[in-house]
Amino acid sequence: MSWQTYIDDHLIATGKISRAGIYGHDGTLWAGSQNFTPKPEEVKIIIESFDNAQKIQESGIHCNGVKYFALSHNEQNLHGKKGTAGIIAEKTAQAVIIGTYEEGTAPGEANTIIWKLGEYLRGGWQWTISRKNNSMDINGSMDINRSMDIMDQWVLMDQWVLMDQWVSMDQWVSMRYTMSEFDFNEHSHRRYNPLTNSWVLCSPHRTKRPWQGQQETADNESLPSYDPSCYLCPGNRRAQGDTNPEYQNTFVFTNDFAAVKSDQPQFLHKTDGVRGECKVMCFSPKHNITIAEMSEDAIIPVIKAWIEVYRNSFSIPYINHVQIFENKGAIMGCSNPHPHCQIWCTESIPEEPTKEIISMTKYYEKNNSCLLCDYVLLETVKLKDKSRIVCENDSFVCVTPFWAIWPYETMIIAKSHVTSLIELDGEKQLSDLADIIRRITCRYDNIFKCSFPYSMGIHQAPVDEKDHSHDSHLHLHFYPPLLRSSSIKKFLVG
User: Which superkingdom, per the lineage (predicted)?
Assistant: First the structure.
């Protein structure tokens, strides 16, 4: 079989590979499609990158005049992306196969096609592929198309896709080389968090261990609708002497024990004074309810109050960030059961939002798209498995992120590209946000039939007057501490 036949029949004829070429390790063209005309220097760099990927990491993969972001690379396979199109290069003992694909072709499909040809040219392999109740040895004596078709049926590539970082077919085989079927519920593995550019170690089998550790006392105390000793109830006197008004829905005031203040001294030791304002927002005059027990109509004024504080922060010159968060439950360190949140308006941007801004900026520069927009599309449309979606409506989706650290961690993400609360488009998005907050908090309470504790934080664009259209996307994090029951708490180590 000629090299040109490999190009025409094995690659282009599939309809998935748009352009392709086969080269010797010295860069000599052996065969190619008519429209595949990369510069010799481009081919040379691609071939060299199997051994040293520094150039493509710094400058991308250039081919046919197109620059692709270098997505993954090893000694046998290179993968680059530009939007929804991409490039794949596969190295064999004598040749290098280079192919490109366009919008409409799944990256996993294109990678598999080129990998099949590369594996055929390598001429001989043997491994075991397994799934529950099935196992089969595949080796070089089997017809290449038959053996690969079996693997295609057993491997659902879309379940391995995450933020344009997927496990290629060769990596899949490597993971299962002389191994039993990989099971997310049984086997230790790492998961990548693209928002913070970090990895999470998952050891799911440890949940089966017997528990003789600490157990918290479940708080089932019945609270009155008004508590005369509560510092947050309407009409009561607060710790510093001020008296609360007889408020009817939300009430915002400056925290009597603020974590940051507008005037901060400077220090000799290496520190950085942080100016700011801390506010407390009472969700309701009722002392004995939580967000989960409030109606959608009652939650909307809370969101509007958040928006008002956020909007007003733009007028304070030294305020650059607004962090809205709720710590619910004594186990989370909440000092008062009255339904409320805190709002920290600070001069500096906290660590976690800073990491997210950096990661989202890099993602946009490489993909010309928003990281969280793409993640929403992945979870709601592209993946067949919708098990991570907790609930959704027209404007928002609540998911357990693939990289979750906490057992019941969730994120509420705007489906449209909204960078902050003030960009919510009218009453529809306001009511949808109120709806999904009520629904996820209700579901939390129903897990263990208790008032479920959590820490909730709203992440949105800073208020520093800079352009954050590409580095911010409105989302809410929920971090509940519970592990197996209402009395067993998860601890982070390391």
Answer: Eukaryota
Shared domain for 339 and 479, answered yes or no, is yes
> Does residue 238 lie within any of the structural domains?
no
Question: What range defines the domain where residue 26 resides?
Answer: 3-175
Active-site annotation holder among 10, 340, 459, 468 = 340
Q: Tokens for 428? A: 């529809």
First CA to last CA across the chain, in angstroms? 56
Residue 461 belongs to domain with CATH number: 3.30.428.10
d(CA 285, CA 135): 62
DSSP string, 109-132: HHHHHHHHHHHHHHT--EEEEEET
Span 482-494, pLDDT tens digits: 765 555 556 555 5
Question: Are residues 283 and 142 part of one domain?
Answer: no
Q: What is the pLDDT of residues 160-190, one digit of tens each?
A: 332 233 333 344 444 433 334 556 666 777 8
Q: How many helices (H) and strands (E) does the chain have?
A: 10, 22
Catalytic residue check, 340: yes
Q: What's the CATH code of the domain at 77? A: 3.30.450.30
CA dist., res. 281 & res. 326, Å (int): 10
Rama region for 235: left / alpha / beta (φ>0; ψ in -120 to 50; rest): left
